[in-house]
Structure formats: C-alpha cells, structure tokens
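Here is an idea for our session: we take a single protein and study its fold together. Start from the sequence, derive the backbone structure tokens from it, and show both lines together. Once you have written the record down, we can walk along the chain together:
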Amino acid sequence: MNYITPELAKKILNSKGEIYLNLDLNKTNKKFKVIVNEDKAIFPSGEIEIKILKKIAKDNAVYLLDNNRLYKLAIADESGYYKLVPTIPPTIEINGIRMHRTKGINPYEDTLNKVNSINIKKGDVVLDTCMGLGYTAIEAYRRGAKVITIEK
C-alpha cells in the first residue's frame, strides 16, 4: 500500500526517471522508489497515469494505491462527508471541519497541547467522545491513563 498526497504528486510530476519518497504518511522514515516516465509513475503498489497524478496534485485529499487500484480516502453518506486530509500526521475532515488544528501546527502537536493542558497522568480516567483517528486517546493511554471511548 502506498499513500499519495498532493505534495507527493507534485514532487513526482517535477521529477524525471526515478525519485525516492516516503509513501506511508511518514509512519516510518523509509523511502520507496518511484519510476517516472512520460505517461505514468510506477510505485511499489502499482502504477498511476501522469494525467491522474495531475488531478491528485490539485486535490486536498489522500489517495491509497494498493494492488494497482487507486482509492480516494473519503466517504460520503447521509450523515456527511468524511475525508483524510494530507497533513503529517493526517487528520480527518468532517463536512469541511478539521478535527485538529492544522494552521501553524500539525495534528500531533495539537494533540500534545490538549493533553498537556489538562495534565493527564498515570491513573487518570479519560473519556474520549469523538475518537477520529485516536491521537488524543493514544497519547492519554501512553501517559498511563485509563481511556474510555464512545463513538457514534
């Protein structure tokens, strides 16, 4: 599985031959080889046509390439529109509202600010009522809190 963001698509479009990029949303420091030619880019998980990469470069969303199939990481249903936003680490956007602050700060730093502001420590009990990607619950757990989650 390879994750493609607009930033990565732009880097690929501006490269020739091959380029090494992180394709796992920076979960690791690993770099993967992407071979670029006139009409397509070849990733470890498949190929994407250059014309599709140009569209991804203009779309503020995250795409998943898996077994040569490309998916936009977004869902629309009667309750709303949910998409993964290409911040690092990513955040969720629900009906146009981001679940973490992203202006001048990344979602992980936002999480640390929240957890630090209430001084979560070992033995605390934390109620998380809107889990999203779980960053706040995970950080509270790392600090020794018991975390209770409720998700609609």
Notes: The first strand starts at residue 2 and ends at 4. The chain has a mean pLDDT of 94.
